[in-house]
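Session log. Operator J.P. requested a structure for one protein chain; no other inputs attached. Running the standard single-chain path with C-alpha cell output.
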Amino acid sequence: MRYLPLTDADRAEMLGAVGVGSIDDLFADVPADKRLTGLPALPLHQSEIAVERKLAALAARNVPAGSVPFFVGAGAYRHHVPATVDHLIQRSEFLTSYTPYQPEVSQGTLQVLFEFQSQVSRLTAMEVANASMYDGSTGAAEAVAMAHRITRRNKAVVSGGVHPHYRGVMRTVSRMAEDRIDTLDPDPTGTEDLLARIDGETSCVVVQSPSFYGHLIDLKPIAEKAHAVGALLIAVFTEVVSLGAVEPPGTQGADIVVGEGQSLGNPLTFGGPYVGLFATREKFIRQMPGRLCGETVDADGKRGFVLTLSTREQHIRRDKATSNICTNSGLCALAFTIHMTLLGETGLTRLARLNHANAVKLADALKAVPGVTVLNDTFFNEFTVRLPANAAEVVEKLARKGVLGGVPASRLEPKRTDLDDLLVVASTEVNTDEDRAAFVTALKEVL
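Structure written below.
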C-alpha cells in the first residue's frame, strides 16, 4: 500500500478529531451541483502504460496554441518567449528559493524582485511597485480594497470595459467585505458615460485600457472627475506589451495601476500560473498589499537588498494585514524580469509596434469579409468584430478548419444575449501573413 497508506481506522480517527462524520462532510461548502455524484467514466484499474496511453489520447484532443493560426486573447496572449528565459529560471538557485526572510542568504532572490519592481514602476510611470501579485484579477480586487482603506468609502465604480473575470473577482472579494460595486454594462463600442456614475460616495473608479473589447481609453478626464470628488483612479490592463506603445497610466493621473504580466516571459500554460503587476503612488505605500524589496547597504557599506515592507498576514498580525492573498508569484516574476531585461526599452517598443502592425493588418483583412464589422476606432493588438452569425458557433467551426479565431464575448458574458454576435480577436508578433490569410479564408467559408 505504498500510495494508500491509511487504514479505515486511521481515517475514522482523523474524521473524529475534526468533528465530521464522513469525508464527504469536508466538502459541505462546495455547492451540491458542483460535486461529482459518481466516478468519472474511466477504467477502475489499469497498468501504468495503459493509463499513459489513455491520458495521451485525451490530451491529443486539444489543439495546441502553436499548432494552428492563433488569434485568441481576452486576457491571456501568445507571445514569443526567448529560450534564454526558460533556461535561466530553471537554475537551482531560483527553483529552490521561497520567501526571503533571511536577507544574508537571499540576496539573489531579493535583487530579482527589486529589479522586477523597478521595471514595473518604469512601465506604469508610477513611483512604487510591489513584488507581484497572484495575477491581474486578484490584483484588481486588492486595488479596490486598498482604495476603500485610503478614502474610507466603500463604493467602487467599474467600467463595462473591464475584463469580466476581473469584475467577477472584484465582486467576490467586495461581497465578503460588504462593499459596493457599481458596474456599468458591457461596453463593446467604447462609448459608455463613466463620468456620470462618479459621485461623492465613490471610493474608486476602475478602468481598463486597452479595454476587454480592445478600445484605448483616455484616462485623464476620468482621473480629473474622480479626484474632484475625493476618489481614486485604478487603471487596469491585461496586455502588458501595450505599455511599450501607449501613454502609461501614471502620466494620465492613475493612483493605482494593476494588470497581468503574463505576456512577458510566461507562456499560456492553460491559464496559469501568471503574475500580477501592482504599482501606486509613494504616498499610498503603507496601504499597498504584498511585499516590497528595497535597496540598502550592509555593515561593510556594500550594496544589498532587504524586505522593506511586508503587509500580509504571514508577516504581521492578521487584523493589521492589508491582505492575506498577496504572496508574490516569484518564478513568474523572475521570467517576466528576464524577458524584460532581454528586450530593454528599445526592444519593448519594437515588440509593441509589431503587435499593433499585425493587428491593423488583421483588422483590415477582416473588414473585407462580407458581413463583418470592426467595432474599434482605436486598439493595440486586440479588437472586437461583429459577425453576421453567432460568434460561439463560428469559433467552433473555425477550430474544425484548423484556425483558433478568437473569444466569443458571450463566453465571458453568458447572460448578455445582445453580445452573441461579437468576437474578440487578438494578433501578436507570432502571427504571419499566412496565418491571417488562413483566418480570412476559413471565416468566409464558415459564414
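Operator note: The radius of gyration is 24 Å.
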